[in-house]
């Protein structure tokens, strides 16, 4: 059990027999009346988002989410195959279970698969990945103005907005949490 005063973004809690991830929280102390914590919670199993208010200091059970390291192997007709690097056990996940991970997955990439009560609830990618540009309009000398972007297709098929100086073959560092270009690698 943890106090709702200790909630942080990304924490997982159990409520109503399911697991929720904290997306936002705000501790409110009105001038009159008792303090409370306003939260926005994402149901990890269904993806639904709810807003809930707790009394300050209220206790909620923390979800026991286990994370194990897996290696991404390949895609098989819309399913994604991962291998546990310790037991060599293979698991096949559906598109719904992996979320937006296929935008950044390359074969042999190491990821963490989260489970709760024996059910796979998601794939945790590294915060940044390095992907090669396979298609974009050519850059021109002098296109150095800031704030101007063009689309670039990466080797996974994901399209990201990049500065004008990026060319085909460049390796880019992409933030997997936001899907945005960070820098050239």
TrEMBL record:
SMART domains: EFP, Elong-fact-P_C. The keyword Kinase does not apply. GO terms for molecular function: translation elongation factor activity. Residues 129-184 form the Elongation factor P C-terminal domain. InterPro entries: Elong-fact-P_C, NA-bd_OB-fold, Rib_uL2_dom2, Transl_elong_fac_P/YeiP, Transl_elong_KOW-like, Transl_elong_P/YeiP_cen, Transl_elong_P/YeiP_CS, Transl_elongation_fac_P. Residues 67-121 form the Translation elongation factor P/YeiP central domain. The keyword Cytoplasm applies. It is found in: Cytoplasm. Pathway: Protein biosynthesis; polypeptide chain elongation. Keywords: Cytoplasm, Elongation factor, Protein biosynthesis. HAMAP family: EF_P. Involved in peptide bond synthesis. Stimulates efficient translation and peptide-bond synthesis on native or reconstituted 70S ribosomes in vitro. Probably functions indirectly by altering the affinity of the ribosome for aminoacyl-tRNA, thus increasing their reactivity as acceptors for peptidyl transferase. PANTHER family: ELONGATION FACTOR P, ELONGATION FACTOR P (EF-P) FAMILY PROTEIN. Belongs to the elongation factor P family. This is Elongation factor P. It comes from Symbiobacterium terraclitae. The gene is efp.
């Amino acid at each position: 059990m943890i106090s709702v005063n200790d909630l942080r973004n990304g924490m997982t809690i159990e409520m109503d027999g399911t697991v929720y991830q904290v997306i936002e929280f705000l501790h409110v102390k009105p001038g009159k009346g008792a303090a409370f914590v306003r939260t926005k919670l994402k149901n990890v199993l269904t993806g639904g988002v709810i807003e809930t208010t707790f009394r300050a200091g209220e206790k909620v059970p923390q979800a026991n989410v286990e994370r194990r390291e897996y290696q991404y192997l390949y895609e098989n007709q819309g399913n994604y195959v991962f291998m546990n690097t310790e037991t060599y056990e293979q698991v096949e996940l559906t598109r719904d279970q992996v979320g937006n991970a296929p935008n950044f997955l390359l074969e042999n990439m190491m990821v963490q698969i989260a489970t709760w009560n024996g059910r796979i609830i998601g794939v945790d990618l590294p915060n940044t990945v390095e992907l090669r540009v396979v298609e974009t309009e050519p850059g021109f000398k002098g296109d150095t103005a800031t704030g101007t972007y063009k689309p670039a297709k990466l080797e996974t098929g994901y399209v990201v907005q990049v500065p004008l100086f990026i060319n085909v073959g460049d390796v880019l560092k992409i933030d997997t949490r936001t899907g945005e270009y960070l820098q050239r690698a």
